Amino acid sequence: MLIAAGCASLVIAGSEARGEAQTAPAISIAGHPAFATLEEATAAAVTGDTIMIGAGSLAPTGPVTVVSGVNIEGVSAGETLIDATALDVGILVTAPVDLTAGAATTTIRGLAIQGAGRGIEVEGALGVVIRNVILRDSQDSGLYVAEGAEVTLVNATLVRNGTAVAGLGVAQVRNSIIAAGVNGLAAAKVGAIVSSYNDIPEDTIFGNTGPAYFQVLRGIGDMSFEPKFVASDQNDWRLTDAQMVTDRGDPLDDFSAEPAPNGGRVNLGAFGGTAEAELSPVVPPGSGGGCAVVSRTPSRGGGSALTWFVMSALAGLALSTRTRAKAPKPYRTTLRGKP
């Protein structure tokens, strides 16, 4: 823990990198007995149900398919893992069977998906909200939005994907970290994907090797700074000390679940807006600035108060609105039967 000279001491307990969840998680729907498999739960779920997945790791034998109106919720992006290695799709959200029944929204939150061709795919469903998730190691894309679908992605961490977010449909992406992959946001037409308050680094250790934006405008609050993760080699994608992505989310989004000091503004990434968010710097009243307390997570390179404040100033100069003209770099051939 670093505390600037002259600041009062405040001890914050450290924590070790958790790595990947290993135990089999409990699977339930309110009012039902526990389910042995996620496939059984999705088959039993009806509109308005929320499938709860406990802490641990599960490996479905096929895409986890839910009809719009059914929700999926894990404990957190660091504790609930869906290992979709070798599957074309991790979670597939489809349109409701009865299109005359009215709009039915779906929320997916608090989990991680690894190894699929496409981490999450949304087909024909509207009002899908995906928040506080980690989508990683997807050969094609972390999130794919098919034509006719509408998705909002909030506070996500998308790492080591072919393309972070892609597709023919409409997507709003905000408060997210998109790093260590090939392409960032790639839309079929200009305006289909709207970006705001995202960190999409380039030309750094955790930067993307392809274009950050393809037919997507760099949005308000977007930045390009290298995030510092607790232990990426152990797939612990929590953030370390207060850094550029701390307190940089949409000012209108809820930050109240973040532990104090939280800066009064939501952090970026999968843990922003949750109890696992990194702490904000502390500046004692009348001190003139310069004092800070770092996060409870261990520091691994950078993250001092001075660095944080200097980077904050630079970020204000770095923001601009522009379109990336170059096409995304190819990562993998199109999935079977997919456009």
Strand-helix topology:
Blueprint: E1 27-29, H1 38-44, E2 50-53, E3 56-58, E4 64-67, E5 71-73, E6 80-83, E7 89-94, E8 106-114, E9 118-123, E10 128-136, E11 141-145, E12 150-159, E13 163-167, E14 170-174, E15 177-179, E16 183-187, E17 193-196, E18 213-214, E19 229-231, E20 236-239, H2 305-318
Parallel strand pairs: 2-5, 3-6, 4-7, 5-8, 6-8, 7-9, 8-10, 9-11, 10-12, 11-13, 12-14, 12-15, 13-16, 14-17, 16-18
Antiparallel strand pairs: 1-2, 19-20
How would you explain this protein's 3D organization?
The protein contains 2 helices and 20 strands. By secondary structure, the chain is mainly beta. The protein has one domain. The strands form 3 sheets. Strands 1, 2, 3, 5, 6, 8, 10, 12, 14, 15 and 17 form an 11-stranded mixed β-sheet that branches. A 7-stranded parallel β-sheet has the order 4-7-9-11-13-16-18. It has a two-stranded antiparallel ribbon with strand order 19-20. The N and C termini lie far apart (50 Å). The N terminus and C terminus are likely disordered.
